[in-house]
């Protein structure tokens, strides 16, 4: 029996969430000169691109965009970042992902920055499903969504000519 795909957020609602989160990031970093938006491949990075666009319109600080690649299936941290890790030293890092499910991706993403000194490290997700296996909490959330474990949340951002949306399968 095929599962039904239910629209949770449409393009306009997603943009409203992005705008609100961007203002929260601005408020949290009003004294900063630079922040680094570190998006987790691939949808977290697309989400970071959207945040960067809004932040460039409203914020005075420099925004550096980084792309983090993680092996989420590994039992140890396997990661790469597309900028030198030294460029993140003594900066504000905003770790960005699309959906928080078990917390593994956020935990591994935080691990990328553990060996360098930082001003602060924050995390952002568009959807928080509240099924954490790891002791992580996000600082900025678009939508907290109660689901059952069998359900799947799919975030579509600029993919395959499909309209933006958050879907529950």
From TrEMBL:
Highest taxon above the source species: Bacteria
One of the record's GO molecular function terms: glycosyltransferase activity
Pfam families: Pribosyltran
Stretches assigned to the Phosphoribosyltransferase domain: 8-154
Alphabetized UniProt keyword annotations: Glycosyltransferase, Transferase
InterPro entries hit by this protein: PRTase-like, PRTase_dom, PyrR_bifunctional
Name of the protein described by the UniProt record: Phosphoribosyltransferase
């Amino acid at each position: 029996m095929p599962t039904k795909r239910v629209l949770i957020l449409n393009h306009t609602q997603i943009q409203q969430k992005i705008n609100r989160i961007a203002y929260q990031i601005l408020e949290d970093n009003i004294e900063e000169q630079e922040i680094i938006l570190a998006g987790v491949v691939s949808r977290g990075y697309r989400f970071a691109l959207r945040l960067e666009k809004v932040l460039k319109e409203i914020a005075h600080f420099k925004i550096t965009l980084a792309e983090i690649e993680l092996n989420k299936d590994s039992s140890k941290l396997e990661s790469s970042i597309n900028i030198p890790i030294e460029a993140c030293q003594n900066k504000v890092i905003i770790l960005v992902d699309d959906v928080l499910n078990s917390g593994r991706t956020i935990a591994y993403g935080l691990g990328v920055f553990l060996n360098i000194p930082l001003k602060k490290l924050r995390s952002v997700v568009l959807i928080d499903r509240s099924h954490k296996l790891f002791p992580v909490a996000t600082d900025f959330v678009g939508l907290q969504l109660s689901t059952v474990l069998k359900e799947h949340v799919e975030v579509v951002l600029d993919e395959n000519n499909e309209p933006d949306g958050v879907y529950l399968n």
